[in-house]
Amino acid sequence: MKQGVVKQGTAEAEVKGGRSAVVAVAAATFSVVTSEMLPVGLLTPIGSGLGVPAGTAGLTMTVPGLVAAVAAPAVTAAVGRLDRRWVLVGLMALLAVANLLSALATHIAVLVGLRVLVGVCIGGVWAIAAGLAVRLVPQRSVGPATSLIFSGIAVASVLGVPAGTLAGGLGGWRAAFAAMGVVCLAVTAALALLLPPLPAERAVRAGEVAGLLRLPGVRAGLLVVVLIVAGHFAGYTFVRPVLERASGAGAGLISGLLLAYGVAGVAGNFLAGSAAARNPRRTLLVIAVALAAVLPAMSVPAGGAVAAGALIVVWGLAYGGVSVSTQGLLTAAAPGSREAASALFVSAFNAAIALGALLGGRAADAVSLPAALWLGGLLVAGALVVLVMPAAAARRSRAAAADLP
């Protein structure tokens, strides 16, 4: 592995680690998001094992999302000038412990408490990792390296659920948490071995993160993130019981359908990444239209496994591109504040996960599972309105300018 040179503050710093370090960071982002997503495909067995309804079991999704939303800016500010390598190693070790102990939980309150620790790790790792590529590879490779780091998030978002469902089907939901704990331990070791020293370039102030909210483009971008992600998770948190209802399938076929979703999501990530590099807003419009249509369609138990499979593939293709496209939208809105913008993005994304899971849970418990899917579709439709408004305003401005004498 060749070494490169990048700017670090006003001094030149030799880059060590290169691509192998980037891969380790991508593995860390994959691990935290997979840990967050893990309960989605396991809600039925978790609820049965701990004697709680699906809506209550859904708290294992809601709580870490809420905590991560607060932890992203808080951890970024709290670590001050600590070496980022050891911050990441410590957070990953904590994540491993939380997952391993979750496998032993005998009460829902204990499991939810451990998910609080998961939330701290999600927010801290994601926010810090997002801006590390520039410090790990030569300048010419920063773009691809950043994409690789974010691919860990995108791939986890679409593969974490089927992987957890498969592990749960083979050994039970406790085995799934234990397996994830072992993966996190391996990633902890990889970070310690492969990352170079990463002293803080400067401390990020909490006020800097909040200051970005004064930018109209940032506010609009965050609203799009919240609406799309919350809409998705209002339905997707309950994807297993929804698929059981729609297809009448057993655990084996459900795992296959979720795997198809994951493969489609990975494809959607790379397709959207290419398109979003040119026009993130247009890419998100296509994604939002697809999600707004497929979520309500999943509520109709017609067509059996074939129809459910077709819809879940479209769902995966669409949602697979959400993280890379929304990140592109926010980066374009605040290009000069990389780490602060990343913390704000992570905060909004995880708050939306928690909000979606909470709203979907209330709709599922109070009305029905289809109600959660329809609610999700309505939220995504709201994102469509936000995305269309700037384009419509620009067209009106151009028309008004053309009418001027």
UniProtKB/TrEMBL annotation:
Keywords (A to Z) from UniProt: Cell membrane, Membrane, Transmembrane, Transmembrane helix
GO molecular function terms listed in the Swiss-Prot or TrEMBL record: transmembrane transporter activity
Gene3D superfamilies from the UniProt entry: MFS general substrate transporter like domains
Compartment(s): Cell membrane
InterPro entries found in the cross-reference section: MFS, MFS_dom, MFS_Efflux_Transporters, MFS_trans_sf
Principal place of residence: membrane
Domain of life: Bacteria
Mode of membrane association: Multi-pass membrane protein
Pfam families in the cross-refs: MFS_1 (PF07690)
Transmembrane regions listed in the UniProt entry: 21-42, 54-79, 86-110, 116-136, 148-170, 176-196, 217-239, 251-272, 284-306, 312-333, 340-359, 371-389
Domain Major facilitator superfamily (MFS) profile: 20-394
SUPFAM superfamilies found in the cross-reference section: MFS general substrate transporter
Gene Ontology, cellular component aspect: plasma membrane
The name this protein goes by in its record: MFS transporter
Source species: Streptomyces telluris
Source organism phylogeny: Bacteria, Bacillati, Actinomycetota, Actinomycetes, Kitasatosporales
